[in-house]
Amino acid sequence: MELVPRTSPVVLLLLSLLGLSTGAVIDWPAEEGKEVWDYVTVRKDAHMFWWLYYATNPCKNFSELPLVMWLQGGPGGSSTGFGNFEEIGPLDSDLKPRRTTWLQSASLLFVDNPVGTGFSYVNKSGAYAKDLAMVVSDMMILLKTFFDCHKEFQTIPFYIFSESYGGKMAAGIGLELYKAVQQGTIQCNFAGVALGDSWISPINSVLSWGPYLYSVSLLDDQGLAEVSQVAEQVLDAVNKEHYVEATQLWGKAEMLIEQNTDGVNFYNILTKSAPMAAMESSLEFTQSHLVHLYQRHVRHLQQDTLSQLMNGPIRKKLKIIPEDCSWGGQSASVFQNMEGDFMKPVIGIVDELLEAGVNVTVYNGQLDLIVDTMGQEAWMRKLKWAELPKFNQLKWKALYSDPQSSETSAFVKSYKNLAFYWILRAGHMVRESPAAFVVGSQLF
Ligand SMILES: *[C@@H]1O[C@H](CO)[C@@H](O)[C@H](O)[C@H]1NC(C)=O
Ligand SMILES: *[C@@H]1O[C@H](CO)[C@@H](O)[C@H](O)[C@H]1NC(C)=O
Ligand SMILES: *[C@@H]1O[C@H](CO)[C@@H](O)[C@H](O)[C@H]1NC(C)=O
User: Fold this and answer.
1) Most Cβ neighbours (<10 Å): which of 69, 200, 236, 361?
2) InterPro entries this protein is in (predicted)?
3) Three-state DSSP state, 317
4) What digits encode the pLDDT tens for the residues 378-393?
5) Domain of 21: which CATH number?
6) Which residue numbers are catalytic?
7) What whole-number distance in Å separates Cα of residue 85 and Cα of residue 95?
8) Are 160 and 174 in contact (CB under 8 A)?
């Protein structure tokens, strides 16, 4: 069992895939990099917070390295908090330098979206985004403002990386950004989207939960029958475009899985889910299914320790956060307002991206349940992209994170502007929990 932290295979694979330098993990402390942050008012009463770190590479100026925007899931999970301090930013949540930060390979732009997420806020409850279209149009305002004010980034390759629900947003944002660049309304060198364990076609996840869990001894025949039955109900609701009902049934499917698996962790099937933290009393929820869904999908992105960091030393450092705006304080409302959007698929948007020639990279953790790999393969088979048959004919290739090692860390297929990575021993998140670290061993 190797306990020395190593660069996650996900990081290595993706950075190399995008032609970014993986380099050697440099020894800290490195030179303090430049960072800037601000709010953009994207609509009346809707204020979006972003935080940019310029790449810090000992041999290269930031202008020779790409810019990566990171979008968290939930919806309601904060990129500036979770993605930054728990996953890929320069510091971890103890404010210690992270050896595996992506900052050596790219400048990083964290954005708290949809509005109300993280340090973003709305002034009127009617101002929350209610669907993907609104999430996308808000982000276009933010990106236009950002690239207009930071001309030094207009020409360097710009990638959108995402996780979970962030992947759905990344697809929508990517397509709109592509059009805006064509029309000349946004000046940027858009280079592609990377969709990590992404919520592209949730029904395909729900339909594969039963077979996946059954195949790894986490459901018995009875459990499989129960889960399959409710999955069919979700499918029926989605087919009828009854999306709010589909969301309720999705919550029911999760509860059935929890009961039948003795509490499997939806983010890594080799672990059990932590007992849920008590809900804050400020929540406006009246519908219990939404409370459960919020607990499962957003609360784990804003644990108490991260909240204390963001609402303590970080807000003090940033100085511009309004006094009465607390990090994560509106996330439950962000989630609740998107209720009618959760179960809508965006396979058609991925098709449009592919047709337009935008680079699309899909990657998925082997141990993820919420967005399991079988479900991802299922929606990919539904793509209408003319090159899909050629992609499908390819055999996958094994990849190793360390050239000296024979341990397979991933498989990949890539044809023209589409690539799919099967990431082994990884769950939903790029960076795994300590438990997964032990179980998956040597992942980092
Ligand atoms: C880095 O790039 C920026 C933008 O192109 C430029 O203004 C700056 O002088 C460069 N710095 C170094 C040390 O080369
Ligand atoms: C909008 O909300 C912020 C954060 O809660 C608050 O500080 C600000 O005063 C509000 N602005 C208006 C015009 O109500
Ligand atoms: C897409 O990726 C390929 C391979 O990495 C690269 O050669 C190409 O320039 C990329 N296309 C765009 C539009 O960035």
Assistant:
1) 69
2) AB_hydrolase_fold, Peptidase_S10, Ser_caboxypep_ser_AS
3) helix
4) 999 999 999 999 999 9
5) 3.40.50.1820
6) 164, 368, 428
7) 8
8) yes
Residue 392, in any domain of the structure: yes
pLDDT at 291: 84
Both tokens of residue 259? 């009961």
- Rounded CA-CA distance 103/351 in Å is 31
At residue 1 the predicted structure's pLDDT band, cuts being 50, 70 and 90, is very low
Neighbours of 272 (CB within 10 A): 14
Instruction: Please confirm whether the linkage preceding 202 is cis (ω < 30° from 0).
Output: no
Radius of gyration of the chain (CA): 21
| Same domain? 369 vs 265 | no
The answer to whether residue 195 is domain-embedded is yes
Lining ligand 2 with CB less than 6 A are 121, 123, 322, 324-325
pLDDT range class, residue 313, cuts 50, 70, 90: very high
Gap between the Cα atoms of 337 and 130, Å rounded: 5
Read off the pLDDT of residues 5-42 as tens digits, 9 standing for 90 and up.
Answer: 344 545 555 555 555 544 444 444 444 689 999 999 99
Q: Is 61 in the pocket of ligand 1 (CB under 6 A)?
A: yes
Residue 152 Cα, ligand 1 centroid: separation in angstroms?
9
Q: Whose CA is nearest to atom 3 of ligand 1?
A: 63
- Tokens matching residue 322: 């309004």
Which has more confidence, 82 or 438? 82
Look at residues 427, 326, 292, 353 and name the one whose alpha carbon lies nearest to residue 116.
326
Residue with tokens 């932590």: 274
> Does a cis peptide bond (omega within 30 degrees of 0) precede residue 211?
no
> Where is the domain boundary, 234, 255, 273?
273
Give 230-258 pLDDT, tens digit per residue. 999 999 999 999 999 999 999 999 999 99
